[in-house]
Design brief:
By secondary structure, the chain is an alpha/beta fold. It folds into 2 domains: 93 residues, Fe-S cluster assembly (FSCA) (GMP Synthetase, Chain A, domain 3, 2-Layer Sandwich), CATH 3.30.300; 239 residues, Rossmann fold, CATH 3.40.50. It contains 12 helices and 13 strands. The longest helix is centred in the C-terminal third of the chain and has 16 residues. The N and C termini lie far apart (68 Å). The structure holds adenosine-5'-triphosphate and magnesium ion. The site of adenosine-5'-triphosphate (ATP) has 20 residues, from α4 and α10.
Length: 359
């Protein structure tokens, strides 16, 4: 009997077309483009997809399976979806890396035509909140819809994994490091590569090498911004950054205290010396939030520093125990307490920086 409409016949091409929408969760590219789809078979609306993982024990295998299932099931006429997973051979993996590298011409930041905006967060002085600012700013920028990477350039004193709540090790595909991702931010840190309490002794050249690895051997994918969390002090790291990423800008973090602002001014001069532009000043621990704001660490350091450097004061972040507690919990305050004055100030800083893009 003719039912008025014949069931749509699902074709292999249709399935392949649909699979283009499925991205590898780590590499941020379509699994079809990555040659991760080995075979597709269709019979009477029953679909079988044979996919290849880049490495054995890929932590996100279930995510890939689910995304394939979900996308294929949306094709009209599909009655069942079955996914089996294999692993790429070393040759296939090499081809994949060559393709990823080729598409990016080595590292996305190293080409003169790079559109990635690199912001190095530094201060000179320790403990003023560089890492806290980096983590929150990164998440705030991601919340504004930007693709954001964080490179933890504090090789000895890394704190980005804790601040962003990143656990585990990044996937390494034949020496190519795939960043871990959380809160919409991709991050790489030495803390992901060494054991927590392992004592690592880094000499200058090794430090340089470690940073170079993070810049050149990490598959960042496409980014709009890369934030670097600089270690305290100036010196070595700033020079490496300037040499490798000559178009990087520096965001100077200070507290309102005059003494801190003076050290920060020296850091800014150092940046100038190595030809890095200063994008702005963030004053952190500015005041204790409340009905009557209290200036705990003095006043005016950020403002006067910004004036001296001839750059904008992009935000004044209050001193708030919730900022500290959120950092310890691995859930930045912009996520944990989005309505707090601190979170608002971080979002304001993000918007300010986006509006002030200078090329
Ligand atoms: N606005 C703030 N309110 C409350 N606590 C804060 C604030 N900013 C930073 N902190 C806390 O101050 C401490 C130092 O912050 P952070 O580690 O970000 O500084 P840093 O400049 O990166 O330090 P280092 O120089 O050691 O790298 C942390 O415990 C952090 O949680
Ligand atoms: Mg730090």
């Amino acid at each position: 009997m003719w039912l008025g409409r014949k069931d749509a016949q699902v074709t292999r091409e249709q399935v392949l077309e649909a699979l283009r929408d499925v991205q590898d969760p780590e590499l941020h590219r379509s699994i079809v483009d990555l040659d991760m789809v080995r075979d597709v078979r269709v019979r009477d609306g029953h679909v079988h997809v044979d996919a290849l993982l880049t490495i054995q024990g890929c932590p996100l295998r279930q995510v890939i399976v689910e995304s394939i299932r979900e996308r294929v099931a949306r094709i009209p006429g599909v009655r069942s979806v079955d996914v089996s997973l294999g692993v790429m051979s070393p040759e296939e993996r090499q081809a994949l890396i060559a393709r990823l590298r080729g598409a990016e011409e080595t590292s996305p930041f190293l080409t003169p035509s790079s559109r990635v905006r690199v912001l190095a967060v530094g201060s000179g002085k320790g403990g003023v909140g560089k890492s806290t600012v980096t983590a929150n700013l990164a998440v705030a920028l991601a919340q504004e819809g930007r693709r954001v990477g964080v490179l933890d350039a504090d090789v000895y004193g890394f704190s980005i994994p804790r601040l962003l709540g990143l656990e585990g090790r990044p996937t390494v595909i034949d020496q190519m490091i795939v960043p871990l991702e959380r809160w919409g931010v991709r991050a790489v840190s030495m803390g992901m590569l060494v054991d927590r309490d392992e004592a690592v002794i880094w000499r200058g050249p090794m430090l340089h090498k470690a940073l170079l690895t993070f810049i050149t051997e990490v598959h960042w994918g496409e980014l709009d911004l890369l934030l670097l969390d600089l270690p305290p002090g100036t010196g070595d790291v700033a020079i490496t950054v300037a040499q490798q990423l000559p178009r990087a800008e520096v965001l100077v973090v200070t507290t309102p205290q005059q003494a801190a602002a003076e050290v920060a001014a020296r850091a800014a001069r150092m940046a100038h010396k190595v030809n890095l532009r200063v994008a702005g000043v963030v004053e952190n621990m500015s005041y204790l939030d409340g009905p009557t704001p209290v200036a705990v660490f003095g006043e005016g350091g950020g403002e006067s520093l910004a004036q001296r450097l001839g750059v904008p004061l992009v935000a004044r972040i209050p001193l708030d125990p919730r900022i500290c507690e959120a950092g310890d919990a691995g859930e930045p305050v912009v996520v944990r307490h989005p309505d707090s004055a601190g979170a608002r100030a971080f979002r304001e800083a993000a918007r300010h920086l986006l509006a002030a893009r200078v090329t």
